[in-house]
């Protein structure tokens, strides 16, 4: 706001008609000229950013401060530009400069440089010749389409949030259920030796049978709950950021294939878990399988897990289903036990002591301060197989020893598996991550969705896939995508709705001010032109198009519309002063370019401080590249479209206007 006001005050100070007038009158007139369009433009910026405060879901609380703070800043900027800025101008600009010899009647010659004169020279043919207009507008449309094609061509990758550069990552190890602690430790040791060979690794710690200390992943991915002889964690610490060239994500990505080969040889499944900036989800890719029967859900989930394994770019595949573990049930033959004088309780107690152990008493030693407990249990070698248990002797009532195998029947079954629920519905989880060229779940899920949809179920129907909500019923086999994709879908959906609200609000504001249904379309036409800069800039910098990039695009739309409003308002001001339509649109583009350029420069300078931040880089790129592209294109496209929309009315007015009235207007001008 201050840029527009100050620029107009300075421009009026240099106009020939300002000579001899007081500085106060000139300043008031200059502020009054841009006052109403500045208010409208400020309202347009607020209308552009404020709807983002209503984004729902997980990202809502994180995004709300941006539109609230920006809207408050714009309101304060209005007061500063209308009160503080003119006062400062009166104090700093001591007197109106004298007229110079090379100053023209319109007062523009003094301030126009070679770029302004070139602009007037180029815009003349574009305004007066239909062929040039058509060729120019088609060229701009081609640029816009080419920029948008970078997304389907996967030159610009869509992602919720980019990867951060942390100083650590984890290797989460899952061995088959039933694996001994010693075997798990051996696998962890082999993986740790491979990790130690990476030059950026400073040290690592291995946790076998338990989880590593709490961190972000441990909290949101429930790693802190991991217990058992078949699980292990390797916590890898990297050298400080300033002492290494590669980011933590690149290091983790390079070490993953090596670790996967080692884990495959041992039958283990691993996950290279980076400390993410967000979102806090169970895993990047999560497929939730629902159905009427849990065993059937597991069978379908196994097919989906195989599809994950066979899809390029999908790594760290796992599922929340335990491997089949043998379970032995010993059923005592009561008749044989009675004949042998052995009770069922004796058999149970004997097995309990042999396997779990029992306290047998205390040892009192004079040299010890505390009594030592006596714990009785068979050694590991004699209790590690079912055959060992069969040979355990049970004392009968008459004092004879009877082998357990003679008193009990042994039945081999499978251990019951854990049943997970989500919102009271039984669910089977299949998880995975993405790696490779397309490190975004969007493209992986598009591929996986097609393969899952092609599965032929014996039930005679296809698996229905959900994204935004759970299945209503479990009567049929169905699947829901969760994880980072769910958050990505939710955020971009809400941002899209917010952007639609932005367009409606801006349209209403512009219609109310200009009293025209055509002018809003001319002004808002500059919004998509920012994509001509935003998408190629993301491509050139190798950056993801993230949620912060979308925020920058929406916020930039308000600034772009602001410039267009000031440009169109000046065109109408020139027309009210008697200038013809063609001259008015050319003159507005030349005169109003300086405040537009300064506004864009202010945005570029302000956003440059976050350009190399891993999280907010997309926001900076969208603001900077979008402003530069829209500045260069809207300066020409908006005047041309305004001319095309109003040329017919101008010709009708000129045709029906009496000659004497025109002469009178010319004399007055």
Let me know the number of strands.
Answer: 16
Radius of gyration: 37 Å
Largest sheet: 6 strands, mixed
Indicate the low-confidence ranges by residue numbers. Answer: 99-110, 659-669
Class based on secondary structure composition and strand pairing: alpha+beta
The pLDDT mean sits at 84
Structure, described:
This protein is α+β, with helices and mostly antiparallel strands. 53% of the residues lie in helices and 14% in strands. It has helices at 2-13, 23-49, 60-63, 65-92, 114-128, 130-148, 181-196, 216-220, 248-266, 294-310, 334-340, 344-355, 386-390, 441-453, 484-514, 519-524, 531-541, 547-576, 581-591, 593-608, 617-656, 659-668; strands spanning 168-174, 201-208, 231-238, 269-274, 285-290, 314-319, 326-332, 358-363, 372-376, 393-395, 401-403, 408-414, 420-422, 425-434, 464-466, 478-483. Strands 5, 6, 13, 14, 15 and 16 form a six-stranded mixed β-sheet that branches. It has a four-stranded antiparallel β-sheet with strand order 2-3-1-4, covered by helices on one side. It has a two-stranded antiparallel ribbon with strand order 7-12. A hairpin with a 2-residue loop joins strand 13 (420-422) and strand 14. Helix 5 crosses helix 6, helix 7 runs antiparallel to helix 9 (248-266) and helix 18 runs parallel beside helix 21 (617-656). It is elongated, with a radius of gyration of 37 Å. The two termini are 31 Å apart.
Task: Provide keyphrases for this structure.
669 residues, alpha+beta, 53% helix, 14% strand, disordered C terminus
